[in-house]
Amino acid sequence: MIPVESTMQPVGWFAMAVSSDAETEFGTASGAMMLLYVALMLATYVGVAYERFHKTVAALLGASILVAISVATGLFPYKYVYLILEEDLNIFGVIVGTGILVDVVGRSGLFHFLSMWIVKLTKGRAGLLYMALCALTFLFVAVLTIVPAMLILSSLTLVICRSLGYRPTPFLISVAVCANSGAIATFASGLPNIMLGTAAGIPYVQFLQVSLPFAVISLLVAIGCLRFFFRNDLPWKQDAEERQMLKSKIAEFDPWALVESRPVLIRSATILICTVIGFAAAQSLGVGMDFIAIVGGTAAMLFAGKGVEDAINKVNWTVILFFMGLFLIIGCVKATGALSFASEQVIALSGNRIEFLIPLMGAFSAVASSIVDNIPVAATLIPIVKDIGETGVPVESLWWTLVICCNLGGNGTPIGSISCVIAIYALKREAGEVVGWGQFLKIGGTIMLLQVALAIAYVMLLQQFDLIPEIPT
Amino acid sequence: MSFDPNESDVNRQVDASMKMFERAKVGTVAPIVPAEIRSVLLCFDGSSQDEAVADAGMFFASKDSNRKLLSLSAIEPKAATGNAGNSMLADMGNMQKVESSHVDAYDRILDIVAQHSPDIVVVPCPFGRDFASVGADSAGTVIDVLLKRCKKPMLIIRRADQTLEAAAKNAVMVVGSENESESNAARLMLGMLRLVDSTDKSVALNLVLGEEQVENISQLLDILAPDAEIDRQRLENALAAAHARLDTALRNAATEQGFRYRMIPRTNATRPQEIDVELLVVLPLEADDQFGQGFVQHQIRQSPHPLLVVPEQGPR
Fold first, then answer.
1. How high is the mean pLDDT of chain B?
2. Do B30 and A248 touch (CB under 8 A)?
3. DSSP, residue by residue, B174-222
4. Which residues of A touch B3 (CB under 8 A)?
5. Average pLDDT for residues A316-329, to the nearest whole number?
6. Which one of A258, B55, B167, B277 counts the least CB within 10 Å of its CB?
C-alpha cells in the first residue's frame, strides 16, 4: 500500500498515480493499469448516463471488458469473480423478494385503495390534498421504493386534478421531490439504501433510529419550500361554495371499487406488515434481510396472489443484471488498488478528520447523484468508505451521510432522480405541460442545497453527541 | 417496471394506473358547474370577420362590465388593413389593447396568451381571409398552429352572420373519441350558456362515430370476435355507455340550471352543418391526441357556426 501521510497534499495525484504501483492481494498493479481501469469504469458510467444506451447493457459490457482484461493480464484468477458476486448475493435476494411482494400486493389494489381513501378524506380541498399527496408519497416510497410509488401517486394526482380542476404541475413536482425524502426512510426504501445497508451491515432498526428522523425533517423542509414556490399556483384559500363543489366531486370516487377481493386485500396487507416487521427483526432472528424478503414474496404468492408466473416474471432482472455488472466493475477496479488510492487521497485531503470527511462525502455524493444515477455513485463510494474506516475514523457517520445525500442529491436536477423523470414524463403526456431545466433547477436545486446542508449538520451533530449507534460486527 | 424506464414505458404504466383509479368513479355524479369567464382575448385579423369578433366582445362585455377584455391586432402584413372591429369596441369599458412584437399572427396570439392567461381566446377562421374565400377546404395555418400550441380555450368565429348571442343559446358538444377534456369542455359550455338571457336554452351531447371509424371497428371485430354481431345500434349503445357519467352530469346540470338537454349517439357520417340554425359547437381537445386533433380540424372546416375548442387544461 502507498504510505499515507496526514499532511500529504492532493496536488500532483495524477502524476503520483501513474508513477505508483499498488500492492493488491494478487500482486502489484501498475499505476497505468489503475488508470486504465478507472477510465473504463468512468466510460461505463457515461454509458449508463447516456440516454440512448441501456444501463444494464452498459454495465454488463463494462464488466465483461474488465474481467477479460483482468484474467488475461493475470490481475486475478477467474474464480475471484465469484468472490466479488458472493458478497452481494443478499442484495439480489432482497430485490427478488421485494419485487415479487410489491407486485402481488399491488395487484390486490391495496395501494390504490389506500391512496384513494386518504385523498377522499381531504374532501378535495387544495391545501389538505397537497399535504396528503406529499405524505402519501413519503409513506409509499418508504415501503415500496420509488418507481412503483411514483407510478401510483402520479396517476392518482393526474386523475384527481383532472376531476377537481387543479393544475397538476405543483402537485406532481412536489410528489417527485417528496419521494426522495421517502427514499431515505428505511433499509428497503431504495436501491442505494439496500446497497449501503448491506455493505455496512447496518440493521434495519438503525435506519428507523437514524435516517427516518432526518427523512421526516427533509420532507418538512421540502414541503415548506415547495409551498412557497407554488404559492400562486393553487387556490390555497377556497370559499364555502367552492368547498361544497369539491366535496361533491370527490364523492364520485369510491375506493372500494378498486378492490376485486377484500380477503385478498386483507391477506396482502398482513403479509406486507409482517415482512416489514421481519426486516426489523432479521438481525435478532439471525437471518439476513434477503431471507425475509424471499419469505415475504413466497407468502404473497401462496396466500395473496393469483398468477404466480406473472409475479415471478415481474422480478426486475434488468436491475439484478445491472447490479451484477456494476459490482464486477467495482470489484475489478478495487483489485487494482485504484479505490484504495482514491480513499488515501480523500483521507489526505480531509486530514483524516471526521468533521471534514462528512461534508466532503456529503457534498460529493449529493452533487454526483444529481447528475448521474445514485446507484453507481453509492457503489463506487462503498469500497472507499470501507477503506477509510480501516484508518480508525468513526465510519458509521460516513455511511449515514451517504445514505442521506445519495438520495437527496436526486432533487438537484430533472434527471437526478427517477421520481423527477417520471413526474416530468407524466406531466408532458397527460397534461401537456413541460417543466424545463431552468424551472426545475430553481425549485429542486434550492431544496437540494438546503436539505444537503441540513443533512451534513444533522450527521455532524449526531456524531458530536455520540448518538450514532454502533454497527454490530 | 425497469429502474430506468423510458418515456413510453412510463406513459403506458401511468395510463394503466390512471384507468384503475378512474374505475373508482362510481359514486353519485355531481352536476357540472359552469366555468367562470373572467377574461377574454379578442384577436382581430383585419378582414371582414373583425365585425363578428367585435360582436363576440360586446356579447361578453354586456353580460358583466367587470369582465376583462383584451384586444389584439394580429393583422398579418399581407392582409387588408381594417380596424372596424377595434373601433366598435372603442367605447367599451374595461377593454385593454395588448401588443406583441412577434411577426406571425399565431406567435403574437400565443405570446399574449402566455402573458395574460385569458379564459377564452376569440379567433376568426380562416385567419386574415373571409370565410367565403376558402369555404370548407382549409381552416388555415393560424388555427392549425393554435390547435397544437394554445393551452387556452378558443372561440373560433366562422361567419359574420352567426352571432354569438343567438348561437350560445343552443350548444352542441361534439365528441368523436375517448377524450379527457370532456368535463372541462362541458363546464365552459355551461359557462357560456349561463351568459345568455333566455328561458329557452338547450344543450346537446353528440357522440359521433364517423363512417370510416365504424368500418375500421367492424373490420377489427371481425377478426377478434368473428361470431359477434355488431350493428350500428349496438355501437351507439356502447357509445352512450362509454359516456354515461358525462351524460348523467349534464342531465343533472340541466335540471339544476334550467335548460333542455339530450344525448345523441350517431354512427352515420356527419351531417352537413345547416347554416340556418344558429348554434355553438363545442369541441373538447385532448393533448397529444392526433386523431382527436384531426377530428376537431375537420369540424372547424365543415362548420359555419362558431366553435368553442377546449383543450385538456381548460378552465380552472
1. 81
2. yes
3. EE-S--TTHHHHHHHHHHHHHTS--S--EEEEEEE--HHHHHHHHHHHH
4. 55, 147, 191, 316, 318-319, 322, 375, 418
5. 89
6. B277
Most confident of A264-278, A342-356, B152-166: A264-278
Could you say which of B10, B21, B313 has the minimum Cβ distance to residue A431? B313
* CB within 8 Å: B316 and A166: yes
Of A248, A257, A316, which has the smallest distance from its Cβ to B23's Cβ?
A: A257
Mean pLDDT of chain A: 88
Percent of chain A clearing pLDDT 70 (strictly above): 93
What residues in chain B have their Cβ under 8 A from chain A's Cβ atoms?
1-5, 7, 10-11, 13-15, 17-18, 20-30, 33, 151, 180, 183-184, 187, 245, 287-288, 311-316
Of B14, B184, B312, the CB nearest to A432: B312
Beta strands in chain B (DSSP E): 39-44, 68-73, 95-98, 120-124, 154-157, 170-175, 202-208, 260-266, 280-285, 307-311
Tens of pLDDT, residue by residue over A342-386, are 888 888 888 888 889 999 999 999 999 998 888 889 989 998 998
Separation of alpha carbons A416 and A384, rounded Å:
22
Cα–Cα distance measured from residue B12 to residue A225, given in angstroms and rounded to the nearest whole number: 31
pLDDT surpasses 60 at B83: no
Q: With contact defined as beta carbons under 8 Å apart, do B49 and B160 qualify?
A: yes
Is A298 a residue whose pLDDT tops 60?
A: yes
User: CA-to-CA distance for A179 and A145, rounded, in angstroms?
Assistant: 9
Separation CA A409–CA A407 (nearest Å): 5
